[in-house]
Write a structure and sequence with these properties.
By secondary structure, the chain is of the alpha+beta class. It has one domain. It has one helix and two strands; from the N terminus they run E-E-H. The longest helix is centred in the C-terminal third of the chain and has 8 residues. It is globular.
């Protein structure tokens, strides 16, 4: 993917397990999804059920993001 193919709004996925997110800060427009593993057992959606505005699931985003690490 080239820089001109990158979306104008950055996607951010926050993964929580055993803790609390206090805040998320950005210096540009972002779209945020949250996966809270501790709350899935109480009814929060699983990563394959959470979607960004463009339809990308959190599960797919997490897999694709590994390429950038």
């Amino acid at each position: 993917m080239t820089l001109d193919q990158l979306p104008r709004t950055a996607k951010v996925l926050i993964e929580v397990s055993g803790g609390i997110v206090q805040a998320v800060y950005a210096d540009a427009p972002i779209e945020v999804c949250l996966v809270d593993w501790d709350n899935i057992t109480t009814g929060d959606p699983r990563p394959e059920q959470i979607q960004f505005e463009d339809g990308t699931t959190a599960e797919r985003f997490m897999a694709d993001a590994q390429v950038w690490l």
